[in-house]
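Annex B. Sample input.
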Amino acid sequence: MTLEEAIREYQEDGYEVTHVVASVCGGCGGTSFMVQVTEDQAMRRTCLGCGLAEFIGDSDEHWDEDDAEECECTCGGEEFAAALGSSCRPDGEVRWLTVGLRCLKCGLCGVYEDWKIDYMPSTHLITRA
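Annex B, continued. Sample output.
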């Protein structure tokens, strides 16, 4: 199963994933990351190539550094490829975000976090992978 397939299959609350965007480092174009998550459904990825840390979706609005934990695969891997899935309303606004990770050690793909978006405008979130 590919990362995109894992995200599309997940469909929280039955909302179809309408867009999937792979995470790409804004600094060097890298696609390998360490990923942190908080209890408040916020995620940040750090590029393994250049060290640039960037938030996923609207995570910058909910980030708590003291609550952040590294994501880890069941195989013990902590390096990932990442992608952001979004479920949109009929008007194009984002309803739900889903973050999937693919372990670079074993290749396992899965959804690590998802959260509802209850404000507008929100279309800018589609590309904040």
